[in-house]
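Field: COMPLEX_INPUT
Field: COMPONENT_COUNT = two
Field: RESIDUE_TOTAL = 852
Field: MODE = joint
Values follow.
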Amino acid sequence: MDTTNCYHCGDPCEKEHLVFDDKNFCCNGCKTVYEIFSTNNLAYYYEIQESAGATPKATTNKFNFLDNEEIATKLLEFNEEGVQVAQFLIPHIHCSSCIWVLENLNKLNSGITTAQVDFPKKKVRITFKSNQITLKELALLLARIGYEPNISLEDYQKKTDKKDHSLLYKLGLAGFAFGNVMLLSFPEYFEVGEFWLEQYKHTFRWLMFAFSIPVVLYAAKDYFISAYKGIRSKLLNIDVPIALGILVLFLRSTVDIIMDWGSGFFDSLTGLVFFLLLGRYFQQKTYAYLSFERDYKSYFPIAVTRLSASDQEENIEIHQVKKGDRLLIRNEEILPVDAILIKGKAQIDYSFVTGESEAVLKQSGDRLFAGGKQIGAVIEIEATKSVSQSYLTQLWSNAVFNTNKASNFQTLTDAIGKRFTLAVLTIATLATAFWLWQDPTKALNVFTAVLIIACPCAIALAAPFTLGNLIRIFGKKGFYLKDTNTIERLAKIDTLVFDKTGTLTTHKETEITYHGMPLNDEEAALLKNTLRGSNHPLSRSLYDLLATYDIKTLDSFREDTGKGVTATYNNNTIKLGSASYTDGRNPESSETAVHINYNARHKGKYLFKNAYRKGIEKLFTSLHSKYKLVILSGDNDGEREILEKKFPFKLPMFFNQKPQDKLRYIEQCQKSAHVLMIGDGLNDAGALAQSDVGIAISDDINVFSPACDAILSAEKLNALPSFLGLSKKSIQIIKLSFVLSLCYNLIGLSFAVTGRLEPVIAAILMPLSSISIVVFTTVATNFISRKL
Amino acid sequence: MSVIYMLLTISICVAVVFFFVFILSVKSGQYDDAYTPSVRMLFEDELVTPKENKTTNDKIELNK
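Field: COMPLEX_OUTPUT
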């Protein structure tokens, strides 16, 4: 066997080995891309990163809908005076070679002016001259060099959303003010009563005041809004004491400088806001190229080909498809609606929907469901429903898709915030009451000092930095979370619900087993030789499995596409294929099998099954002791026995679950438990949305996965127990940080209640507590996840 | 003694200019993609050398 790898894509060269220019290529596609690159002076592509390319797919018809002017215009970002700008999402962008070759696209076509890659988003923005190259030609050019753009309904309907830079502005403003106020406040800390300082200190103080105004009014705006909302809904969240602290800091400082009592706490104020916003910024870690909000729209094409009454082809947008329309579906196209097959041989791959990758054969008159992908020849279908009413898309009308899980969940910080606020207010009142009785002149001083020093900056920072850091660590290990809130919800999980197909099983490997009478040598040799001639995917994988026999020339060989093969040799006839083809019987259930008929006798069948992922038994055993486990499958219960054997402990299993059933089951469970749903296909989308945390398993994270809270790369499934365990530990870290910051608060309070809080103490204590919390959480999270 | 006022004015003006430039850079999208430019920066140099070495060969191929 040849072990050389393709120079272009890095795949091992097996079936089709080509040598060109002294380099090995696995297929013609890769060779063509290499030719394009090398003749256009782009061979440097291979120097930056070895084997960076992708095999281009045959897609001549795929972008036909871009001929439709209306659709094309909507995809353009800019379109004036012959210059057009379009942005494409290209999932294959993965290395510096990709950036380089895409940004040098103008060498391939002079109509392209510039191209700029946004690597984290996996997008390329291309400016081109519309009189030299059209949008469709551009898409085809990209596809031809292995960078097939993904154009989905989602891009098309999306309004150009303005990027929200407000947090960066606020952070910049707070940092700017913090720095300047520090410079202005330092002299008074060190040179008390110095002659010149006495002359200028008022200028300094009013300048600090001026710097603080935008910080309070603009940068800290969100805290006031959140606190106000919290109080109005009778919830004392953590933002209440923060907003109170900021407000009191500002007012007290202003009064201090007006009355000339002191220099005020402007440095603590601006520093506090700066650190808080820094925490927010850190928490905002997102995976720009992963989408957690995908619904069916990202899977579906923008347009389909409709046949008019006079058999004219026209491209229409899919939401214009009406019941009764006749549509043309080509190879690799997705059915946008439920339909009836009219003409052609349909071989539908429902892997998007169910996770089952084996294509299903359909004959004219059969019902087809939206979401399936046609493989093979062109088919003609008649829509029986509109897009939004199809079996699959109906799921999205359920209300769960509009609820925000994060907003319904009380975070640990908010839970603490409530008690904290009450405690601070009590201490402030008690201390004030004491001083009113002892020395009324100090009462106001003490009251404000308590509110200032107790401002829970460190508490508010603990969660963002712990969880933000953990999200980054998880991301490096192939577990991508939507937001930090997900970790807190993950820590509460006690029930795990697994989908079967595509989640517990893998698409990549199939397990082939033989059932029936054993084959003798002669029969096996004929079988092998017959398979050699067939190009059907099942034949290919079966061929690779069987032992080698001498190559014989068959007397006759006939392949009926989509049904099976018949061959004769030495008067022996063998028929391979579906049960209906070999024996004229109806196939049993929905199993994938190749039946063998030798000289008109049914010998047996090869059963094809998706193999279970490696280490699944171990995973379940380790999870079983800590969590309640459930399996929900959309398939029939043919696998029940195998599953029961694999997992000897009692495990609830449910089969034949429709998407809606899965959703309802999760809803039922949630009455008494916190449910984690793990699934992969679109049919799990409802359950993923309903569950407390929905994790989508994905073999290739760049490929679509349904809307969820987290995406787990499939080879990391076995690490799930550690991910869950770490989430729990992170909560412990947050709690420890709370204790730590409470210690700081106690020290500060001891100054405050005795009426001795000087601005310089606040200026030291507040940043110190914030920084030590940040250091503690970062070190602690790295420590607990060192073994991951 | 008014020199301190002048110094203050100058220092704050300089600070404000930098702050303004920061705002402009955020607005122009510099912070949207912090990764790609770091890679792109490294390309330029290496691109020039292969071009210069075989300018004659390339021209023929490009003119095809």
